[in-house]
Amino acid sequence: MVTKLEWDVIKKRGCAVCGKSDASVGGLEKAHLKAKSKNGTQIIPMCPTHHKKFDKGLLSESELKKIGIDPVNYKKYLPKKGAGAPKPKTAYDEYEKAQKDTAKKMKKANDETKKLFGRKLGLI
Ligand SMILES: [Zn+2]
User: Fold this and answer.
1) How does pLDDT run across 29-60, given as a tens digit for each residue?
2) Distance 3 CA to ligand 1 centre (A)
3) Where is pLDDT greater, at 114 or 63?
4) Exposed (0-12), middle (13-18) or buried (19+): which is 28, by Cβ within 10 Å?
5) Can you tell me the distance from the alpha carbon of 82 to that of 103, in angstroms, rounded to the nearest whole number?
6) What would you measure as the largest C-alpha separation in the chain, in angstroms?
7) What is the pLDDT of residues 2-26, one digit of tens each?
8) In angstroms, what is the span from residue 15 Cα to ligand 1's centroid?
9) Model pTM score
10) Would you kindly state where each structural domain of the chain is located, as residue ranges?
11) CA separation for the pair 120, 40 (Å, rounded)
12) How far apart, in whole angstroms, are the C-alpha atoms of residue 1 and residue 20?
């Protein structure tokens, strides 16, 4: 762990990936360069967006290079599956899920309409 003082200094660098400042992202997060579950201790500042992407293994090759990780070794840095308690869902997660569900439903309805419409046209 870092002390508050250390963290104040570290976070002045901004998000390690995009460089956004603490204030502009509503608070930078402490990202473990190596997951805590794998005894990682090095802390780097990341904005909430990149922290989430990092932990999910979604950072791109160029983004990984910015934080000094060889893409080949990326997996080694990720948290172990099932490590720690599942994170509580945020309102944004719910919103995202609802968006996806709606998109799925709309696509299905669209496909069905196409099928029906195609059939109808064939009959005429
Ligand atoms: Zn960022």
Assistant:
1) 999 887 666 666 788 999 999 999 998 899 99
2) 22
3) 63
4) buried
5) 29
6) 77
7) 899 999 999 999 999 999 999 999 9
8) 5
9) 0.58
10) 1-87, 88-124
11) 62
12) 22
